[in-house]
Amino acid sequence: MDATDARLASQYEAYPYPQRDPRDEAKRLIVGSPSHLREIDHWIFGARRPASAPLRALMAGGGSGDGTMMLAQQMAWAGRPGEVVWLDRSAAARQVAEARAAQRGLSNIRFESGSLLDLPKLGLGQFDYIDCCGVLHHLPDPAAGLAALAGALAPGGGIGLMVYAPHGRTGVYMLQDALRLLAPDSEAPPARVEIARRLWKQAPETAWLRRNAWITDHLDGGDAGLYDLLLNPRDVSFTVPQLAALIEGAGLRLRCFVEPLRYDPDRYLNDPKLRARTAGLDPLARAALAEAICGNMGIHIAYCTRDPAPLPDWSDDNAIPLLRELDGAALGKGIPADGVLRVSYDGLRLGVPMPRLASAILPLVDGTRSIGAIGAVLAGRGIREDSFRRDFALLRDALEPLNRLLLAAPATARGG
């Protein structure tokens, strides 16, 4: 632990992050990426790992518990066996996370105090899935941190990462520089928070953070959010190539960025001459191009594995498609007359063309029917099999890159 790391540890004791009230667990479950159970099944395990197989997950740097609550609750609701191990060195964060788990009555969470850098000597064993969300960019050596996580993976396991990205955080580092002058870290945290709030009120309209509508922790994250954003003693960000190099250096394989659609430059570039040039780029260069031209990515979320892993098999008639946080019937009815679904990411609006049969297929995607069963229902309504196959493939091409149409974990092991 260096001096900066000591200040970081003190920060999270004073302001557990994110700022949460355990009583709010009765009102809502905070859902997001990474570590959504359906995403883990799809992106990490290729929808091949049986739902009956116990899932052992580690939340490395679990903080006040957002990811832990989400995954443990989803496992409990689905009747999935296994446990979620929360690991963090902050006693204050542990107190919040334990209170949240108690409010939910979750018994599948195990709480452990310590640093992820100490994993080799903590004796926690191996994990099928590891979450490391918002942690690596605060470590003195992110590569050592990711290597420690990779070493704790069970065969066939994977990791979900979230790190800061530079372009979408425009303005953050400028105000961090200003506050190092106005509120040095030798002062007590409450005094620094007061000065930060005063500076934000006085910052001129030309301050870049005022023009960055996608960063809001200093506005709606309470004192913990403001401190983490503007007063954090160590805060680095990663471009797509830098994150890819970090992943490769740990002996891991990048499965995907989330959402995949955002990292496809052809979603933004319609000019045929530009597309002719993007066609010659490898997938990583294409993702880097998308990041550079959009400018609004404040974080990168990635799933990666240590071992080669099969991709989801959309050609398997027994595979069960499902929608993540979407109602198929409502989505089908809401498709505009021009057949183009509009989505928005941090101020950027994109059009996603939907196939002609989308409104007929989507209500049947209920998480229980297989692809073959959906086709059989539509065949009974007079829809030809080749038409269904064509439009289902188009629907997959439209919604899987949005991280919304995924394949479920099979109930039992399947071949392939």
TrEMBL record:
Gene3D superfamilies: Vaccinia Virus protein VP39. Residues 1-25 are annotated as: Disordered. Keywords: Methyltransferase, Transferase. Signal peptide: none annotated. The keyword Methyltransferase applies. GO terms for biological process: methylation. GO terms for molecular function: methyltransferase activity. It comes from the Bacteria. The keyword Transferase applies. Residues 60-158 form the Methyltransferase type domain. This is Methyltransferase. It comes from Teichococcus oryzae.
